[in-house]
Amino acid sequence: MYDVAERSGVSIATVSRVYRTPESVRAQTRERVLEAARELGYVPSGNARGLASRTTGVLGLCFPDYADPDAEADAEADSDADDAVMLYSDQIIRGMERAARRHGYALLIAASLEGGPESLVAKVAGRVDGFAVLAQTVPTEDLEVISRRLPVVMLAGPREIDHLDHIVVANADGERELTRHLIEDHGLRRLVFVGGDTDSPDAEARFRGFREACRDAGLPVPDEPALRTTMMKQAEGALAAETLLDRGGERPEAMLFANDQMAVGALRALARRGVRVPQDMAVTGFDGIPLGRIVQPSLTTVRQPIRRLGEQAVELLVQRLSDTGREPVSLTLPVSVIRRTSCGC
Amino acid sequence: MYDVAERSGVSIATVSRVYRTPESVRAQTRERVLEAARELGYVPSGNARGLASRTTGVLGLCFPDYADPDAEADAEADSDADDAVMLYSDQIIRGMERAARRHGYALLIAASLEGGPESLVAKVAGRVDGFAVLAQTVPTEDLEVISRRLPVVMLAGPREIDHLDHIVVANADGERELTRHLIEDHGLRRLVFVGGDTDSPDAEARFRGFREACRDAGLPVPDEPALRTTMMKQAEGALAAETLLDRGGERPEAMLFANDQMAVGALRALARRGVRVPQDMAVTGFDGIPLGRIVQPSLTTVRQPIRRLGEQAVELLVQRLSDTGREPVSLTLPVSVIRRTSCGC
DNA sequence: ACACGTTTTGAAAGCGCATTCACCCTAGAT
DNA sequence: ATCTAGGGTGAATGCGCTTTCAAAACGTGT
Predict the structure, then answer these.
(1) Best of A21, A51, A83, A148 to disrupt the B interface by mutation (most B CBs within 10 Å)?
(2) Which of A45, A177, A181, A219 pairs as cysteine with A214 (C-beta 3.0–4.6 A)?
(3) What's the pLDDT band for B66 if we cut at 50, 70, 90?
(4) Is the pLDDT of residue A172 over 50?
């Protein structure tokens, strides 16, 4: 910048004005400066600009390090499927990028390796005007510290820190509606719910929705899922289905799984056992993964608006940046029941 | 930082060392500093750090503003397909993010709106250690200026500036191999190639591969594609197929399209006309889009390693950052022929 | 007790830009 | 010719950190 100033015979203040407030510089001067900048290959330093103006024009996203384990398993069988399917994080990135672009922000993304002062999280936090965090990505204590300095919005998880904005999807509502559909529209009565680990807020919320629907319909309300799995993967879903089949007592009419992966695994297990879906058994999932559309029979499920999650995150960040004092908000994004074949539709 | 220094009774230099070179600070002092930092909610400023150290730890990516037009069209018919299918840019982002993470970099992404000094491109350029550009995203003149200051790698396009690293996929090789397959393995003789606009380097390279295969097989070598379309979309592919059908002379045995979108359109048009694929007509595409797997008959095509493109981009950037003097390199990524139903396999 | 080699720490000088304040110049008004 | 407004410009300061360089603290051997 000093070079540009010298070469065009002005002060650095004028060069700065050429970029920040072009109309405040006489056209002729402006041209001289731009010409010099071109000749010298001048690229304004975002760092210096950010330092001086205390703003970066960048929003951030921290997401977990994992790739969907089942996606990897599928990929082995069919390596180019891996390139075709969007993961959770891909969709959020897409949503955030689009929304950020609309507001003139760029997007800085990083998967969190581990916590600590030198993590990528710290790098992101220091370089953005605000950022979004996927639940269980950043240690709460780090978040606590960071969120005192800049806007943070928590995505798809419990609000661990109460002064943060946060966005969740309507897990309970979705599962309740899905369950209601099975009960009222298909006349099913003996339903079982297969949940996840107790520390999965999503799975717990979905179970809650299931219970509410049972209660509303006057059916028995279970205290616990019929079964819990730890990772909610396909293999566990398959195992769960078999376990439930082998369990004594009357066979259930429907198995509701806390996510699509388990449901898909169950579909395969049931096929192996000769249990016809949906005639002998209805099966449902939750999430709306692409695989659910392809599998036979196609999977009835609840679709999460993941991309909207990203878009909303940006909106909240932008809002808060323009109104620091705003009360923390907590959004719940609506989900939609996708009726396909596996429920009997 | 000054506050942290004061609160912990040390100088700012020591605070800095705690974060940059923790082992050079006595453990006891370090603890005091970290404690104070925690209490004060201290988040190191990436800007200041970048300014002082002249490095950001961030790599960038600029990609075009468009969403795949056909993808949008498909999305109207089936809105959740849109969320399931990865676009070109999504795949590159994924590849770059993974590779960047391995090297300890975060990734800054921005779609280029327009050029000019205040564009997102300029923002990206000023905030990263190096970045990748998708062809036809950034005006060459801007790139010319920027690339004199930091490493830039050009992706999937002609190297407009000769001192840039750049990466392309083996368009010609792929099409040549695909054509050879049709000729040798399926014994086809009357092949026609449907190309794109002359200013599409990809389409031209693919046509070149087609010609090479014809020449190698001793078949007539056309100077021009049998037909050219401008946008290479499905509708144009359909139209092209019909035009070729209606054209006088002997009906071709195979239609090779410059991309998958056109090929899929052609598949539909041929079905409407009662031309059986692959019995009466072989059809091939190029790209390896997910749709090609689903369509009936499934589409034989050439798959581009898009994600690898992103990974390689990061590798080149990292290399160049550690060895500024390295000669510009030009990589060509191998592609793979995917034999599915539409060619007769 | 003293000298000497090692850590540890501090002081100070930037890094490249935005921004305030004061100044200068040009027009139009008097 | 003198004055007044304002637009256009420059000097100077500070943003928060890294990084020498030098001084202080610490340990060790004599």
Answers:
(1) A83
(2) A219
(3) low
(4) yes
What are A336's strand-pairing partners? A303
Confidence bin at A290 (pLDDT 50/70/90)? confident
Low-confidence winner among B4-18, B112-126, B171-185, B298-312 (lowest mean pLDDT):
B112-126
- Residue numbers of B between 164 and 183 with CB closer than 8 Å to A: none
Using one digit for the tens of pLDDT, what is the confidence trace for B236-255? 999 999 999 999 889 999 99
Nucleotide nearest B27, from its CA to each C1': C8
The whole-angstrom separation of Cα B115 and Cα A38 is: 14
Mean of the per-residue pLDDT values of chain B: 89
Q: Could you read off the pLDDT of A118-145 as tens digits, one per residue? A: 577 888 999 999 999 998 888 888 899 8
Q: Which residues contact A295 (CB under 8 A, 6 or more apart)?
A: A264, A267
Where does chain A have alpha helices with state H? 2-8, 12-20, 27-40, 46-53, 69-77, 81-84, 88-102, 120-127, 140-146, 171-180, 201-216, 234-246, 260-272, 291-294, 306-322
Q: How far apart are CA B146 and CA A303, in angstroms?
A: 43
CA distance B57 to B203: 36
What string of H, E and C letters represents the secondary structure of A243-301?
HHHHCCCCCCCEEEECCHHHHHHHHHHHHHCCCCCCCCCEEECCECCCHHHHCCCCCEE
Element housing A78 (H / E): none
H or E stretch covering A338:
strand A336-338
Asked if the Cβ–Cβ distance from B41 to A104 is below 8 Å, we say no
Which tokens belong to A100?
Answer: 């950020």
Query: Which pairs from B315-324 meet CB under 8 Å and 24+ separation?
Result: B315/B99, B316/B151, B316/B153, B316/B165, B316/B167, B317/B59, B317/B129, B317/B130, B317/B131, B317/B132, B317/B151, B317/B153, B317/B165, B318/B103, B318/B105, B320/B130, B320/B151, B320/B165, B321/B129, B321/B130, B321/B151
Q: Which two tokens stand for residue B335?
A: 């592609």
Residue B80 confidence (pLDDT) above 70 = no
Q: Is A86 on the interface with B (CB under 8 A)?
A: yes
Task: Please identify among residues 111-140 of chain B the ones whose CB lies closer than 8 Å to any CB of chain A.
Answer: 111, 113, 117-118, 120, 122-127
Complete domains list, chain B, with CATH:
2-44 (1.10.260), 58-169+307-332 (3.40.50.2300), 171-303 (3.40.50.2300)
- Quote the CA–CA distance of B71 and B264 in Å, as a whole number: 12
- Spatial contact of A253 and A278, defined as CB atoms under 8 Å apart: no
